[in-house]
Write a structure and sequence with these properties.
Largest sheet: 7 strands, parallel
Shape: elongated
Strand content: 15-25%
Number of strands: 14
CATH topology of the largest domain: Rossmann fold
Radius of gyration: 20 Å
Order of helices and strands: EHEHEHEHEHHHEHEHEEEEHEHEHEH
Structural class: alpha/beta
Oligomer: single chain
CATH architecture of the largest domain: 3-Layer(aba) Sandwich
CATH class of the largest domain: Alpha Beta
Number of domains: 2
Number of helices: 13
Distance between the termini: 44 Å
CATH superfamily of the largest domain: Methylesterase CheB, C-terminal domain
Helix content: 25-40%
């Protein structure tokens, strides 16, 4: 279902979705009240839900939709503003599955990047709803590596499509038990990254801030790559520091996971633990290879719990992982590995 108060946007989104033979748009409605009524009367896998609408807005409709069908996956359509980012991430904490940047015009709707993001998220979440994902073990060849002897000095996390929800789960699972610095690259617009940092902090686990150029990295804190800047790690006698660059995008992304991991492998002399979460593409594959070659370790999210098994799947199928696990089991495994526990 597509729910938006603009008939033009509704039609444009429906055309994009139905351009993929795997997707069928069963309903188009103009406000949240109608969306709730439709979900009560029939089953939908996905609802693409606008935030600002008359009669009933998206944030009001969200809990009613989830109550009407606890299995429905809701994708919030958010404007690329600070307020829009805050509402979208608040919706994720309320149970929305993901968000897409709301098109401001037909030109934006027809952007190839937007089309690809919308289709990937709808298909990935639809697959999770129907639980048709092939499990990572048995059907996908994965060779696991033995745990390294050295305990990591840094935890480095990469994520993309489906990442915010996965990060909420991971950070809550880690709690306040991580004694090393945590660096994080999530593919996200620059208006969203400071809001994501704030929402991760509100979980009550480790404090999270956007990384600042030149700042020292302290254990038990999360440093998030700002939107449109690469986050690099620099070593020295004074410890680890963050460096931000405007170097060209890698894997069509800035920030990109690869430069973060490449620099971390050098700065930490290989003592890096990588956690690769759900995401489209192969960003992080080359960087994880450098970490492993230097003596580090990696854990990947499994196929069954990933919205898109691109980034974690790439490192798993390349034989770079020490473990490939469902999302809820990743934090306990990371904590064990950071303490040097072998399992």
């Amino acid at each position: 279902m597509v729910c938006d108060d603009s008939a033009v946007i509704r039609g444009a989104l429906a055309r994009i979705l139905e351009s993929d033979p795997e997707i069928k748009v069963e309903a188009k409605v103009e406000n949240g009240k109608l969306a709730v009524e439709q979900v009560r009367s029939g089953q939908f896998d996905i609802v693409v839900l606008d935030i600002e609408m008359p009669v009933m807005d998206g944030l009001t409709a969200l809990p009613l939709l989830l109550r009407a069908d606890p299995g429905v996956r809701v994708i919030m359509a958010s404007t690329l503003t600070t307020r829009g980012a805050d509402i979208a991430l608040r919706a994720l904490r309320m149970g929305a599955a993901d968000y897409v940047p709301k098109p401001s015009s037909i030109g934006t709707v027809n952007d190839d990047g937007f089309r690809r993001e919308l289709l990937e998220k709808v298909k990935g979440l639809g697959r999770l709803r129907r639980k048709t994902a092939a499990p990572a073990f048995g059907r996908t060849a994965v060779t696991l590596r033995p745990a390294p002897a050295n305990v990591a000095k840094l935890l480095a996390v990469g994520s993309s499509t489906g990442g915010p929800q996965a990060l909420f789960t991971l950070v809550q699972g880690l709690g306040r038990q991580v004694s090393v610095p945590v660096v994080l690259t999530q593919h996200m617009p620059k208006t969203f990254t400071p809001i994501l940092a704030d929402h991760l902090t509100r979980l009550g686990a480790m404090p999270c801030t956007e990384a600042r150029d030149g700042e020292s990295l302290v254990g038990g804190r999360i440093y998030l790559a700002p939107g449109d800047r690469h986050l690099l790690i620099e070593g020295g006698r004074a410890g680890l520091r963050a460096r931000l660059t405007n170097d060209p995008p890698e894997n069509f992304c800035r920030p990109s996971v690869d430069p973060m991991l490449r620099s971390a492998a050098v700065a930490c002399e290989g003592r890096v633990l990588v956690a690769m979460l759900t995401g489209m593409g192969k960003d992080g594959l080359a960087g994880t290879q450098k970490v492993i070659e230097a003596g580090g370790a990696a854990v990947g999210q499994d196929e069954a719990t990933s919205v898109v098994w691109g980034m974690p799947g790439a490192i798993a199928q390349a034989g770079l992982c020490n473990a490939v696990l469902p999302l809820p089991k990743i934090a306990p495994k990371l904590l064990d590995m950071l303490k040097g526990v072998r399992s």
